[in-house]
Structure formats: C-alpha cells, structure tokens
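Exercise 3.2. Students should predict the tertiary structure of the chain below and write it as structure tokens, then compare their answer with the key that follows.

Predict this chain's 3D structure.
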Amino acid sequence: GSDVTLLIDSKSIPVIEGTIENAKMGLIPAGAYRNKKYFGDNVEIDENISTHMEDILFDPQTSGGLLISVEKEKVDSLLNYYKKNLNTDFAIVGEVVQKEEKFIKVR
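Answer key:
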C-alpha cells in the first residue's frame, strides 16, 4: 500500500469543452460508475463537489490523460519545460501529503 494521500483540487482539473454540460444531462459512460464502485471506498469527495463533477472525475475516458507527481522544488522547472515544449493543456491539480484515512481526497 501507499503511505501517501493525493489531495485533488477539482477546480484546477482541465475539463474538455462541453464535458460539464454533457454530465449535467446525464451523459456519463457506464465505466464511470464501475470506477466509482471499485475505487469509491478509497476516495473522499467533499460534499461541496457537484454530482456532475464527481461523475467526470470517475469517467474512464481519459484517452491517455496523465497524472504525474514531482517534488515541490522541481515544479517551476517542469512547468517551464512544458510551456516551451508541449502543445497541450496541463495544470497543477493537487498535492501529495502524508497518508490520511483515504488514498484520494477531492475538494
């Protein structure tokens, strides 16, 4: 097991245009519900997170989406590299902290 918890800021997660509207209409793939059933006991979702955002966070259609972790001291260097060399969206969406009750906490 892991000795860390991921604190995720849902407002910082890049979302493809139209995704929120589709989620509000209930256009959620069945895989999102399977993911939630499988991982849900290890995830704490803040009560202020909307149901449609929660559905988006469990959506399996990342199409190669990545989440990486880097030491705080190296964040600026990595962001500068990405700005110069990537033509895609990226964002800091959270932080890694000492293990809490759940493996992932979304606020």
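Discussion points: The helical segments are 19-24, 30-39, 51-58, 75-85. Strands lie at 4-8, 43-45, 94-98, 104-106.
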